[in-house]
# Entry
Amino acid sequence: MLILPAIDLREGACVRLLQGRFDAVTNYGDPFAQLRQFAEAGATWVHIVDLDGARLGRPAQHELIARLAQETGLKVQSGGGVRTREDVYALLRAGVTRVVVGSVAVRRPAEAREWIAAFGADRICIALDVRAAEAGWRVATDGWAADGGKTLEEVLGAFPPDELSHALVTDIARDGALSGPNLDLMQAFRALRPDIELQASGGVSTLADLAALKGAGASAAIIGRALYEKRFTLEDALAL
# Structure
């Protein structure tokens, strides 16, 4: 299982939000220093989110992300506010290895499929940010501020097999809460789409959580607050 340490950017600083709430922010300082620490620990990938872009619905920190992508030899997966083909191209041109597409994948899946066909399935990851509901899992959009009007199953159904390679699935209620990952959600996703590389996000607080995600079928795990608050080291996570 691939480990992707996370850097969330807000107004140029490295931060973490609790459950996606912009009124519940913890600042962790210089993203360049954090990126170098990840590289020194042995990471090969980093997950970078433009939180301002996600909130505004347009890129807000692509210049900073480009500088971060050029800082080390790490492969960068990045998104936040990606709404057009030009946004995807700009990130790839800036040195980002894989672009994360959220709201467009939910609201305009045919367009997202066109981007996948144009840039390659390994260069695009769709982000599915979900909340539990009576009728299964509801997918949020616009930086988690809006209900996308679809269930997880409906969104995935818009992407035929062999077209989509990567999906990042986040339980919003657990993101930044250090309450443990939602294994039921990950298992539900894996049962729906065994053909897609599943990136799990939200709630990781221990090394045992990572082992459990691997057992649930996750191909990768995004880790944020647990690393910043030193619940375990990145070195230990990578060794696991």
